[in-house]
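ARCHIVE RECORD
Type: protein–small molecule complex
Small molecule: S-adenosylmethionine
Source of inputs: curated submission
Record status: active
Notes field left blank by submitter.
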Amino acid sequence: TLKKMDLANNQHQVAENSLVVTNPPYGERLDERIQALQVFGELGDWLKRCAIGAKAAYLAIDKDMGRATGIRSDKFYHMFNGQLSIELCCSKVIPENFSQSAYTQSVTELSTGGRELSNRLAKNDRKLKSWLKKEGIECYRLYDADLPEYNVAIDRYGRYFHVQEYAAPRTIPPQTARKRLDEVVLVIRERYQVSVEEICIKRRRKQKNEDQYQKQELLSAVDVEPFTVYESGLRFEVDLGKYVDTGLFLDSRPMRRLVAQHAAKKSLLNLFAYTGTASVYAAAAGAASTTTVDMSNTYIAWAERNMKANGFTGSNHHFIQQDCIQWLMDNTLKYDVIFLDPPTFSNSKSMETHWDVQEDHGIFIEKLMESLDQDGLMIFSNNLRKFKLDEELAEIFDVENISDKTFDPDFQRNRHIHHCFLIRHKKVVG
Ligand SMILES: C[S@@+](CC[C@H](N)C(=O)[O-])C[C@H]1O[C@@H](n2cnc3c(N)ncnc32)[C@H](O)[C@@H]1O
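STRUCTURE (tokenized, with ligand):
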């Protein structure tokens, strides 16, 4: 008989001593890997449910993929499907062979390392609990490579988990790194009782030849629609699946609060504004006007949605899709508060030049100060770990490095993630 059905709902019983042969998707591309692992997990669940005593043979891209079934194989045959190197994994489906897998429903025992990670998450949960409650925060960093073997950052966005894997040093074999990442998923699943669909995994990589610039790649394409999260009673749209960044930079929360503290009845200019979260904070604090500038159509539209979601739609809220460098050349207006949070590096076809925060901030800020009211305040932050402020700026303006005061309890472990400066015009004496 032939039947079409979903593996997860398959109740078809297989007789003892049968042979189950299958060729599931390989997931050879990294972004397909997690989905393929899930299929192997479902296959394992079905075999354990319906095929006890049978033999199973499945083709997989590597042994780790085969292990995602949670059934130990007694034989692997290495072979090629065209150019593609694959493994035929052969198992006997008996309880003695059932093993640990992050991708099966039947979660089994954690390894010693996994237990340590789980304990650390519990400790961090306890440490952050009262602060999160008091501040009404549902998006935060839960774990930041606290244990060297589990070299990931784990952020929470409501019920979702956003896992960013820091690239492993070359001394760690890729299989070991993969196994540890699987364990992270397993620990999160077990401790928080969530499914793999609620865990989004991304990898951070250093770009070739430009080792200070970090790039990320999406490892698991979670099928999550954009959703709303709350911070300080305000609504923000986040998207965990589609982009490398989520729409809300968690480490810059203190800078958003700072903008709000100074924005009442003032005009705010928000440059390199991304999804406009600082503009939302300013508007909520009673800013007289906000001007949100970003080069990207996607992000300007997103910023507008964030403002609208919080009820800020009036004609005193301006959205400008333009290269900030170009915009500054033409600007003649003055602002009371300027929030400047540029990327470390940016290059795009629509830009005539490229932006390098270390090289370009001095001249840019000097020019931008012409757009700041005589009594105004500029809040300048960036995410270059080894950033050094141009010394000339401190000679021309009043500059205060307040980086030390801009780390919330969830970023105490990573106090190099950003720098923050307050910049004002020097007071004329006499
Ligand atoms: C907010 S910054 C990055 C924030 C954070 N400091 C970081 O480094 O990850 C990124 C934003 O700058 C925008 N951007 C990059 N170059 C730009 C330019 N020349 N003019 C305007 N916006 C730009 C991008 O579209 C993006 O929304």
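CURATOR ANNOTATION: The first helix runs from residue 30 to 50.
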